[in-house]
Amino acid sequence: MEILHIENLTKEQQNLTLIENMNLNMESGQTVAIKCTDDVSLMLFNLILKKTKPSKGNINWLIAPKISTVLKDEGLYERLTLDDYLNFFKDISNYRNSTKEIKSILELLPIERKKIKALDYSQKGRLKIARALLSSPDLLLVQEPTLYHDAESSSIMRKAFAYINNLGISILSTSVSHEEILLLNCKSYVLDKQGFKELEPNTTSFTSFSDTSVKITKIPAKIHDRIILFSPTEISYIESYDGINYLHVNKDKFPCNMSLIDLENKLIPFGFFRCHRSYLVNLQKVHEVVTWTRNSYSLTLDDSKNDSIPLAKARLEEIKKFLNF
User: Fold this and answer.
1) Cα gap 285→307, rounded to integer Å
2) Residue 9 to residues 35, 43, 48, 61, 189: CA-CA distances in angstroms?
3) CA 154, 124, 173, 150: dihedral to nearest 10 degrees?
4) Rounded CA separation 313/320 (Å)
5) Cα separation of 111 and 113, whole Å?
6) What is the 3-state secondary structure (H, E, C) of the chain?
7) Strands 286-293 and 16-27
8) Rg value, the chain, Cα
9) 223-229 contacts: CB < 8 A, separation 24 or more?
10) Sign (positive/negative) of CA torsion 233, 305, 19, 185?
11) pTM
């Protein structure tokens, strides 16, 4: 049964088109995953929740659904134990069943007596899903269900999603990571400036990498016990401080063990430029070159935060040649 019908949805904000001509049908008990920025994710959720109106198009429901939202940055009551927290929301939601099954599915039973402030990031993420289920929703809107989670927690979350779908609950999930979207093993899409399009499974086969001229470039970052591999085009800039290099991707940053010199050598072919002794910038992301004083310059980026990073005076003439201005 169809639960959600999005038709020709367009949303413009401050002369920017965040969502353009989006069409989507969601069935009851289905998971759909969308790769998009955090800003677009929040806007889409607000449109679905009727907190804002579309510029064009429609969002229609076959039934009036109950919707629960799980945002990656939302807070928790850190002083409560996990069990007290869920019981609190159980009372608010008038949830009549025991919370034991939900805790079991999300493997929270072994830590139910722990205070939330003692939980790691992955455990807190699973707790947010458990809390959302206490309202007996028809639809879950979830940001980043597995990104930054350890391998065990990611596996638990994917199994939990299958269980939730079997209950007839639909899940609309978003992530900034292409890889995380594909790992959910569901209908997947990309929502960006080029529009809304479905991600097709990669069916291309290679006889041998050694027999081809294919060159794969990925930049590694370590989160907990996981290595996340970013494509150069995903990275806005790289910043070095306190002896650590950080990859800035959308609104987040990720530590990288590679040296700044090694990163520069690897990324120059992809349009990266050493604009300052502590910064490498993706020139494709540069929106403005700003002059503050005779000796002070900065670069404004066309990213989700419109970041501003320093440009060394000695590099000004070189960047003019690169950008032809």
Assistant:
1) 10
2) 17, 12, 11, 14, 15
3) -20
4) 12
5) 6
6) CEEEEEEEEEEEECCEEEEEEEEEEEECCCEEEEECCHHHHHHHHHHHCCCCCCCEEEEEECCCCCEEEECCCCCCCCCCEHHHHHHHHHHHHCCCCCCHHHHHHCCCHHHCCCEHHHCCHHHHHHHHHHHHHCCCCCEEEEECCCCCCCHHHHHHHHHHHHHHHHCCCEEEEEECCHHHHHHCCCEEEEEECCEEEECCCCCCCCCCHHHCCCCCCCEEEEECCEEEEECHHHCCEEEEECCEEEEEECCEEEEECCCHHHHHHHHHHHCEEEEECCEEEEHHHEEEEEEEECCEEEEEECCCCCCEEEECHHHHHHHHHHHCC
7) unpaired
8) 22
9) 223/148, 223/254, 224/120, 224/121, 224/122, 224/148, 224/149, 224/150, 225/150, 225/151, 226/149, 226/150, 226/151, 228/177, 228/179, 228/254, 229/179
10) positive
11) 0.66
Q: At what angle do helices 82-93 and 121-133 cross, to 10 degrees?
A: 20
CB 283 within 8 A of CB 272: yes
Cβ atoms of 172 and 140 closer than 8 Å: yes
Token readout for 265 is 């050598």
Within the chain, which residues score under 50 in pLDDT? 202-214
List Cβ<8 Å contacts ≥24 apart for 229-236.
Answer: 229/179, 230/254, 231/178, 232/267, 232/270, 232/272, 232/282, 233/270, 233/282, 233/284, 235/267, 235/282, 236/281, 236/282, 236/285, 236/301, 236/303, 236/307
Torsion angles phi and psi, residue 304, rounded to 5: -65, -20
Scanning the structure block, which residue is given the tokens 């910064």? 279
| Helix 151-166 and helix 121-133, axial crossing angle in degrees, nearest 10 | 10
Indicate the length of the chain as a whole number. Answer: 325
Domains in the chain (CATH in brackets) are 2-198 (3.40.50.300), 216-323 (2.40.50.1020)
